[in-house]
From TrEMBL:
Belongs to the ABC transporter superfamily. Macrolide exporter (TC 3.A.1.122) family. Pfam families: ABC_tran. The keyword Magnesium does not apply. This is Putative ABC transport system ATP-binding protein. The keyword ATP-binding applies. Coiled coil: none annotated. Residues 4-231 form the ABC transporter domain. Gene3D superfamilies: P-loop containing nucleotide triphosphate hydrolases (3.40.50.300). GO terms for molecular function: ATP binding; ATP hydrolysis activity; transmembrane transporter activity. PANTHER family: ABC TRANSPORTER ABCH.1 (PTHR24220:SF86), IMPORT ATP-BINDING PROTEIN (PTHR24220).
Amino acid sequence: NPIIQLESIEKSYFMGNQAIQALKGVSLEISKNEYVALMGPSGSGKSTLMNILGCLDSPTGGRYILNGLDVSKMPDDSLASVRNTEIGFVFQQFNLLPRLTAAENVALPLIYAGIGRKERTERAMEALKKVGLETRSHHKSNELSGGQIQRVAIARALVNNPSLLLADEPTGNLDTRTSAEVMEIFSKIQEAGNTVVLVTHEEDIAAYAHRIVRMRDGVIESDKLKETMMIHH
Ligand code: ADP
Ligand code: ADP
């Protein structure tokens, strides 16, 4: 039951009369509820692929079927609406607004979706509960730890109930202990039924995932299911 089907995806960036081919034919299927880590050296195409998976950018070749819908040639406005309903993003930079409380930050995407105040508050609290922060809902960023801030960012990514959670180096700014705290949350979210795809440079972080896809020079170099997931409970 694939949520993501990539067929020979290509992406070139054009700069003047020069083209940089960032993706050179990437085919990949990800099933619902999978937990995938995307790895590879800097410049191998991870961010480009994540931007395409997240409907932030379109491929220059190939097909992308998301939840049965071909999004590869969609105009930008349709792509934006798919993005808002299907995708949750978590970035290395937390991107929280410091003047707003945790709950207000989490509710932001719902304002853009035109949802009323009462429902916004309820759904923000529900999302904060999923990341174990319901008791911190009234705190602002400067009253939260780094790990808690990233958990608020995860709650914000979840508030629209997306079918796909994408995270680009979500622990890149965190120390080892805090990274573990954040990764426990991703595991819980995946166990609750979400599909999670994250980019990381760190093997320790990738070890939380059940499948590791490695890229090099714009292609997939290897794609491995972890045997340990059978033993590990
Ligand atoms: P990372 O390796 O952490 O993904 P990068 O430095 O590769 O970070 O990219 C950071 C951002 O800059 C990305 O959004 C990427 O698309 C963009 N970017 C990377 N290389 C170039 C480039 N040559 N010209 C313009 N933008 C770029
Ligand atoms: P990674 O995330 O693995 O570091 P990227 O997807 O950021 O890799 O980059 C892949 C290649 O595409 C690199 O050569 C990078 O410089 C280039 N690139 C990425 N984004 C852009 C952009 N916006 N404009 C031009 N080149 C880019």
